[in-house]
Amino acid sequence: MTIAEALTLAESSIDRREAQYLLANLLKLSRATLLAHTERVISPDEADQFTRQIAARAAGKPFAYIVGTREFYGREFSVNEHVLIPRPETEILVEQALERVSEQKWLESRTNAMVLELGTGSGVIAITLALESKTSNVTACDNSTDALKVARNNAQRLGAKVEFIQSNWFAAFQHRRFDLIVANPPYVAGGDKHLAEGDLRFEPAIALTDGSSDGLDSIRTIVAGAPAHLSSVGWLLFEHGYDQADMAREMLLKAGFENLICINDLAGIPRVSGGQIR
User: Fold this and answer.
1) 106 pLDDT higher than 60
2) At residue 103, does pLDDT exceed 80?
3) Distance (Å, rounded) from C-alpha 157 to C-alpha 40?
């Protein structure tokens, strides 16, 4: 089977461009090189693997899970079915976190900012913060051992120094305080129909929803627990759903946070909220 024949076969089931990227990834070629050498013969094993990938994609399996990677903040991260697929809007959370740790004036006379990420998943947030801010000491936790394995592998491959700990939110940090706490927690409402649609069908449910009717139980836990784990004038930042900004603000005020922020994504949707403790 030639590359041209393989692509023709694939395009009867899936999008043409996706077929090209799948085959290019499989053959370890750029898409341009693939299309410039469509007469090349692929091996039977490669043909069989490509056929399986086509079937998986046609069944709805996310492209990122098939190829095993997803780009985030300019770097390639490994992903699998144990972790969420990184979204572009989460880069807003990273940008806001980097902005805070660069403002050394609010730190308690320390050179390095102590940063904690809750629910790290594949580790994209913690690893990016560690690589982009050399003055940050980053710790990250997750309650899933499978997710932590993915995160540790990503950190090792990308050369990021991150302390990974298994913990259900703050459980493992009773006596530790941080200058910045960040989180992209599950925030989809338990009964949301989208959980049974598209890529969400294949992603880990516990990373998408905590099962609460409004999707906010995890955020409630984080906001309520953060003050006891933040240094003086420390910051909490978290991602939330499109319709949760007002409720997030109420929680932050109730927990004693000031200098509240709410940042929109590129579509103008409120995406990241947070505040500073006093």
Assistant:
1) no
2) no
3) 32
